[in-house]
Write a structure and sequence with these properties.
Length: about 240
Protein backbone atom coordinates (compact mmCIF):
# COMPACT_ATOMS: atom_id res chain seq x y z
CA UNK A 1 0.00 0.00 0.00
CA UNK A 2 1.32 3.43 -0.97
CA UNK A 3 0.28 6.41 1.15
CA UNK A 4 0.38 10.05 0.04
CA UNK A 5 -0.04 12.29 3.09
CA UNK A 6 -1.22 15.86 2.47
CA UNK A 7 -0.55 17.17 5.99
CA UNK A 8 2.60 18.85 7.29
CA UNK A 9 3.32 15.93 9.63
CA UNK A 10 5.95 14.08 7.58
CA UNK A 11 7.39 16.64 5.19
CA UNK A 12 10.75 16.86 6.97
CA UNK A 13 10.86 13.19 7.96
CA UNK A 14 13.68 11.40 6.13
CA UNK A 15 11.65 8.17 6.26
CA UNK A 16 9.11 9.75 3.90
CA UNK A 17 9.80 10.71 0.29
CA UNK A 18 9.18 14.41 -0.25
CA UNK A 19 6.69 14.76 -3.07
CA UNK A 20 8.17 17.59 -5.13
CA UNK A 21 9.31 15.54 -8.11
CA UNK A 22 11.20 18.35 -9.88
CA UNK A 23 13.19 19.21 -6.75
CA UNK A 24 16.19 17.36 -8.16
CA UNK A 25 16.74 14.76 -10.84
CA UNK A 26 16.81 11.85 -8.39
CA UNK A 27 13.53 12.75 -6.69
CA UNK A 28 11.15 11.01 -9.13
CA UNK A 29 12.97 7.75 -8.47
CA UNK A 30 12.77 8.25 -4.71
CA UNK A 31 9.04 8.90 -4.97
CA UNK A 32 8.48 5.92 -7.24
CA UNK A 33 10.28 3.60 -4.82
CA UNK A 34 8.61 4.94 -1.69
CA UNK A 35 5.58 3.62 0.16
CA UNK A 36 5.23 6.79 2.21
CA UNK A 37 5.09 10.08 0.30
CA UNK A 38 4.68 13.51 1.91
CA UNK A 39 2.84 15.85 -0.45
CA UNK A 40 4.53 19.27 -0.33
CA UNK A 41 2.99 22.51 0.83
CA UNK A 42 1.99 25.15 -1.70
CA UNK A 43 4.27 27.93 -0.46
CA UNK A 44 7.28 25.60 -0.06
CA UNK A 45 6.82 24.27 -3.60
CA UNK A 46 7.45 27.74 -5.00
CA UNK A 47 10.21 28.63 -2.57
CA UNK A 48 12.13 25.37 -3.00
CA UNK A 49 11.94 25.67 -6.78
CA UNK A 50 13.57 29.10 -6.58
CA UNK A 51 16.16 28.45 -3.88
CA UNK A 52 17.31 24.83 -3.94
CA UNK A 53 18.90 24.92 -7.43
CA UNK A 54 20.92 28.00 -6.47
CA UNK A 55 22.17 26.41 -3.26
CA UNK A 56 23.02 23.18 -5.07
CA UNK A 57 24.98 25.11 -7.70
CA UNK A 58 26.87 27.16 -5.11
CA UNK A 59 25.40 30.50 -6.18
CA UNK A 60 23.49 30.93 -2.93
CA UNK A 61 25.29 30.01 0.32
CA UNK A 62 23.33 27.66 2.56
CA UNK A 63 23.69 30.12 5.45
CA UNK A 64 22.45 33.12 3.44
CA UNK A 65 19.58 35.00 5.15
CA UNK A 66 16.82 34.16 2.69
CA UNK A 67 13.57 36.13 2.68
CA UNK A 68 10.36 34.74 1.19
CA UNK A 69 7.28 36.86 0.50
CA UNK A 70 4.13 35.25 -0.85
CA UNK A 71 0.46 35.83 -1.54
CA UNK A 72 -2.20 33.16 -1.98
CA UNK A 73 -5.85 33.06 -2.86
CA UNK A 74 -8.08 32.59 0.15
CA UNK A 75 -8.82 28.93 -0.67
CA UNK A 76 -5.37 28.23 0.74
CA UNK A 77 -6.77 28.88 4.21
CA UNK A 78 -9.29 26.05 3.96
CA UNK A 79 -12.99 25.99 4.78
CA UNK A 80 -12.85 28.54 7.57
CA UNK A 81 -11.15 31.22 5.50
CA UNK A 82 -13.31 30.49 2.47
CA UNK A 83 -16.38 31.01 4.66
CA UNK A 84 -15.04 34.35 5.89
CA UNK A 85 -14.97 35.61 2.32
CA UNK A 86 -18.01 33.85 0.86
CA UNK A 87 -20.55 33.34 3.68
CA UNK A 88 -22.54 36.55 4.06
CA UNK A 89 -23.81 35.40 7.46
CA UNK A 90 -20.37 34.66 8.93
CA UNK A 91 -19.73 36.63 12.11
CA UNK A 92 -16.12 37.22 11.09
CA UNK A 93 -16.84 37.89 7.41
CA UNK A 94 -14.19 39.92 5.60
CA UNK A 95 -13.82 41.71 2.29
CA UNK A 96 -10.21 42.65 2.97
CA UNK A 97 -8.35 42.94 -0.33
CA UNK A 98 -4.99 41.90 1.15
CA UNK A 99 -3.56 40.99 4.52
CA UNK A 100 -0.32 39.56 5.82
CA UNK A 101 -0.25 36.90 8.51
CA UNK A 102 2.19 34.56 10.26
CA UNK A 103 3.76 37.66 11.77
CA UNK A 104 5.06 35.70 14.75
CA UNK A 105 7.44 34.03 12.26
CA UNK A 106 6.37 30.51 13.25
CA UNK A 107 4.55 29.50 10.06
CA UNK A 108 4.23 25.73 9.77
CA UNK A 109 5.84 25.70 6.31
CA UNK A 110 9.17 27.18 7.42
CA UNK A 111 10.83 23.89 8.54
CA UNK A 112 9.87 22.37 5.20
CA UNK A 113 11.33 25.33 3.32
CA UNK A 114 14.57 25.18 5.28
CA UNK A 115 15.02 21.42 4.98
CA UNK A 116 14.28 21.01 1.28
CA UNK A 117 15.67 24.41 0.35
CA UNK A 118 19.00 23.10 1.72
CA UNK A 119 19.34 26.09 4.04
CA UNK A 120 21.40 26.16 7.21
CA UNK A 121 19.20 28.81 8.83
CA UNK A 122 15.47 29.49 8.92
CA UNK A 123 14.24 31.63 6.04
CA UNK A 124 12.25 34.73 6.92
CA UNK A 125 8.78 33.98 5.55
CA UNK A 126 5.92 36.48 5.30
CA UNK A 127 2.76 34.98 3.75
CA UNK A 128 -0.34 36.93 2.80
CA UNK A 129 -3.86 36.45 1.47
CA UNK A 130 -5.54 38.26 -1.41
CA UNK A 131 -9.22 38.69 -2.20
CA UNK A 132 -9.28 36.02 -4.92
CA UNK A 133 -10.13 32.34 -4.63
CA UNK A 134 -7.07 30.56 -6.00
CA UNK A 135 -3.61 31.32 -7.34
CA UNK A 136 -0.28 32.16 -5.77
CA UNK A 137 2.94 34.10 -6.16
CA UNK A 138 6.04 33.23 -4.12
CA UNK A 139 8.91 35.74 -4.25
CA UNK A 140 12.53 35.57 -3.11
CA UNK A 141 14.35 38.95 -3.33
CA UNK A 142 18.12 38.78 -3.63
CA UNK A 143 20.84 41.39 -3.28
CA UNK A 144 23.14 39.77 -5.82
CA UNK A 145 26.09 41.93 -4.78
CA UNK A 146 25.94 40.24 -1.36
CA UNK A 147 26.40 36.78 -2.87
CA UNK A 148 29.80 35.19 -3.53
CA UNK A 149 31.04 36.32 -6.92
CA UNK A 150 28.11 38.75 -7.29
CA UNK A 151 26.29 36.65 -9.91
CA UNK A 152 24.31 38.48 -12.57
CA UNK A 153 20.57 38.02 -13.08
CA UNK A 154 21.43 36.15 -16.27
CA UNK A 155 23.58 33.67 -14.36
CA UNK A 156 20.84 33.09 -11.79
CA UNK A 157 18.35 32.56 -14.60
CA UNK A 158 20.68 30.13 -16.37
CA UNK A 159 20.99 28.08 -13.18
CA UNK A 160 17.22 27.75 -12.83
CA UNK A 161 16.72 27.11 -16.54
CA UNK A 162 19.31 24.33 -16.51
CA UNK A 163 17.86 22.73 -13.40
CA UNK A 164 14.33 22.57 -14.80
CA UNK A 165 15.23 21.91 -18.43
CA UNK A 166 12.73 19.47 -19.94
CA UNK A 167 10.38 19.52 -16.95
CA UNK A 168 6.75 19.14 -17.91
CA UNK A 169 5.20 20.90 -14.96
CA UNK A 170 7.84 23.48 -13.99
CA UNK A 171 9.09 25.98 -16.56
CA UNK A 172 11.36 29.01 -16.40
CA UNK A 173 10.29 32.07 -18.37
CA UNK A 174 12.94 33.56 -20.67
CA UNK A 175 14.54 36.68 -19.24
CA UNK A 176 13.10 38.78 -22.06
CA UNK A 177 9.58 37.54 -21.32
CA UNK A 178 9.86 38.42 -17.65
CA UNK A 179 11.43 41.80 -18.43
CA UNK A 180 8.49 42.61 -20.69
CA UNK A 181 5.87 42.06 -18.00
CA UNK A 182 4.24 45.15 -16.57
CA UNK A 183 2.69 43.06 -13.78
CA UNK A 184 2.76 39.51 -12.46
CA UNK A 185 -0.60 38.00 -11.61
CA UNK A 186 -1.16 35.37 -8.93
CA UNK A 187 -3.94 33.78 -10.98
CA UNK A 188 -1.75 33.28 -14.04
CA UNK A 189 -1.38 29.50 -13.63
CA UNK A 190 -4.87 28.78 -12.31
CA UNK A 191 -6.58 25.52 -13.26
CA UNK A 192 -3.27 23.92 -14.22
CA UNK A 193 -0.84 21.58 -12.49
CA UNK A 194 2.09 23.70 -13.66
CA UNK A 195 4.40 26.28 -12.13
CA UNK A 196 6.10 29.17 -13.95
CA UNK A 197 9.31 30.68 -12.61
CA UNK A 198 10.59 34.19 -13.34
CA UNK A 199 13.81 36.08 -12.71
CA UNK A 200 13.30 39.84 -12.57
CA UNK A 201 16.72 41.42 -12.44
CA UNK A 202 18.62 44.66 -12.65
CA UNK A 203 22.29 44.02 -13.36
CA UNK A 204 23.24 47.67 -12.83
CA UNK A 205 21.87 47.63 -9.30
CA UNK A 206 22.96 44.06 -8.57
CA UNK A 207 19.47 43.01 -7.58
CA UNK A 208 16.98 40.30 -8.53
CA UNK A 209 13.56 39.10 -7.50
CA UNK A 210 12.82 35.45 -8.14
CA UNK A 211 9.15 34.58 -8.47
CA UNK A 212 7.08 31.42 -8.79
CA UNK A 213 3.48 31.48 -10.00
CA UNK A 214 1.32 28.42 -9.33
CA UNK A 215 -2.21 27.36 -8.52
CA UNK A 216 -2.30 26.63 -4.80
CA UNK A 217 -4.95 23.97 -5.53
CA UNK A 218 -3.04 22.57 -8.53
CA UNK A 219 0.74 22.17 -8.41
CA UNK A 220 0.47 23.41 -4.82
CA UNK A 221 -1.87 20.61 -3.71
CA UNK A 222 -4.01 18.13 -5.65
CA UNK A 223 -1.98 18.32 -8.85
CA UNK A 224 1.17 17.35 -6.98
CA UNK A 225 -0.68 14.50 -5.24
CA UNK A 226 -1.83 13.06 -8.56
CA UNK A 227 1.68 13.42 -9.98
CA UNK A 228 3.07 11.54 -6.98
CA UNK A 229 0.50 8.77 -7.36
CA UNK A 230 1.40 8.50 -11.04
CA UNK A 231 5.05 8.08 -10.09
CA UNK A 232 4.24 5.53 -7.41
CA UNK A 233 2.04 3.53 -9.78
CA UNK A 234 4.34 3.89 -12.78
CA UNK A 235 1.54 5.09 -15.06
CA UNK A 236 1.99 6.74 -18.43
CA UNK A 237 1.75 10.16 -16.80
CA UNK A 238 4.64 9.44 -14.46
CA UNK A 239 7.41 11.11 -16.46
CA UNK A 240 8.33 14.51 -15.02
CA UNK A 241 10.71 15.45 -17.82
CA UNK A 242 10.46 15.17 -21.58
CA UNK A 243 12.80 12.76 -23.30
Amino acid sequence: VTLVDASTAHRTDAAWAYGFAEMDRAQPGRIAAARRIANPGCYPTGMIALVRPLVSAGLLPADFPVTVNAVSGYSGGGKQLIARYEDASAANRTDSPFWAYGLGLEHKHVPEMQTHGLLARRPLFVPSVGHFYRGMIVQVPLQLAALPGAPTPARVHACLADHFAGCRHVTVAPLAESAGLAALHAEGMNNTDDMRLHVFGNARHGQAVLAAVLDNLGKGAAGAAVQNLDLALGTGEAATRSA
